[in-house]
Structure formats: C-alpha cells, structure tokens
Amino acid sequence: MCGRFYVDEEQNEEFLGIIRNLDARFSNQAKITKGEVRPSNMAIVLTPSKIKSAPLPDSMRFGFASPKSQIINARSESALQKPLFSSCVHNGRILIPASGFYEWDHTTAHTKYYFSRIDGKLMYIAGLCKICNDTECFVILTTAANDSMKEIHSRMPLILPDDKIDAWLYDEKEAIHLLSYQPEALKKTCVSPPSSYEQMPLPFLS
Asked: Do residues 114 and 65 make contact, with C-beta atoms less than 8 angstroms apart?
C-alpha cells in the first residue's frame, strides 16, 4: 500500500496541462506511464522550481531500489527518523499528481477499490525522491487511514490539499508539519476482483 495509482489526462484538463508542459520541456521524449501506474513505471511528478514559481513537471521511476526488494512507500510519521528518507524530507520533496489510487480489501475476496477526490479534481500525493542507480526515483508517503479508507486498509497516501502545494515544495518547516496532515474524505468505488498478478503483495517500509 499504496502500490497503484491512476493517471487519466483525458478526463482532467489540469492533468492535460501538466503533460503538455512536460512535453514542452523535454521535446516529447519524456517516457511516462498513463493509465494505471505500477512500481518501476516512469510517472509524472511535480518538483519545485528554482524561483518558487509554478511547480515543474518531471518524470521519475516509481520505487527506490534496495538489495532485498523495491521500496515504494515511506511512512510519513517516521520518515525523518529513517536514514533512507530523512535527507529526502529536507531536499527531495515532490508531489505525485493522480486521478486516484487503488487499494485491495484482503478481508473480502481481495476486492479492488478505486479512491478519488469527492469533487473529482486532481489529487496531489506527497512523495520523496532521490537518485537510485543513476535514475531519479520516488516513493509515496503514507499516513494513517481516515474514515473513508480505514475499513479497507489501515494506511493511505498522504494527499495534500491544493492550498498546501507550495508549502510542501518550498517551505521545509511547514512541510515537516504536513507530515502529520490527515487527508480529507475520499470517494470509494468498487472496481472488481483483481487478477492473479494484482493480488501479489507489494513491499513498503514499515
């Protein structure tokens, strides 16, 4: 958890604008995954600009490489205390724009659910990035599940409100405070029982 999120630029004008900006910066050569994004895929992220203007879109690989397994999540409550993540909190804060994310209820025949914002707008997931084997990679920060999520899973992505985007990217003191932010309620949609591949557990750092 959280191992899959969804990118639907066709249904979201804001997302379409981010992709166009990314294409303009990298001459249409940025390799990004659209639709369901899985660990090891290249995905769109937002990074701070040097002049503190609008965040800059970039592409990074989902997951940190490690000797034992791929690390895809970091607990927000302990990120500052973990050697793997502490420097990233100070110098590697990013946002992952997404239409929504998936989670599986393993108590009811592995049912797959899709979570999105109630207002249908783009969600901004807090993340951390660093260089792994000469490639920029990112992990998703997670926090304790809120009421709309906790019946399915005890954890959820750290989703920040629109008015906290700049604070997360540019204000280290405020960003550390946001590590304890409780995301707002989400819309839950039952998708379907997953395939055998989707039932495979994905590792995350406890």
From this structure: no
Give the distance, in angstroms, between the CA of residue 30 and the centroid of all CA atoms in the same chain: 19
From the CB of residue 126, how many other CB atoms can be counted at a distance below 10 Å? 28
Closest alpha carbon to 158 in 170, 176, 173: 176
Q: And the tokens for 10?
A: 């066709």
- CA end-to-end span of the chain: 11
Q: Quote the DSSP letter at residue 99.
A: S
Contact call for residues 10 and 4 (beta carbons, < 8 A): no
Cα separation, 114 vs 123, whole angstroms:
13
Q: Is the backbone of residue 103 left (phi > 0), alpha (psi -120 to 50) or beta? A: beta
**Structure-token match 């998708």, residue found:** 191
Condensed to tens digits (0 to 9), the pLDDT of residues 91-120 reads 999 999 999 999 988 776 678 899 999 998
Closest residue by Cα to residue 83 from 22, 19, 21, 130: 130
Query: Residue 12 — pLDDT band, cuts 50, 70, 90?
Result: low
Cα 100 to Cα 123: distance, rounded to the nearest angstrom? 7
Residues 6 or more apart whose CB falls under 8 angstroms from that of 23 comprise 30
Cβ-in-10-Å burial (0-12, 13-18, 19+) of 26 comes to: middle
pLDDT tens, position by position, 158-205: 999 999 999 999 999 999 999 999 999 999 999 876 443 333 333 333
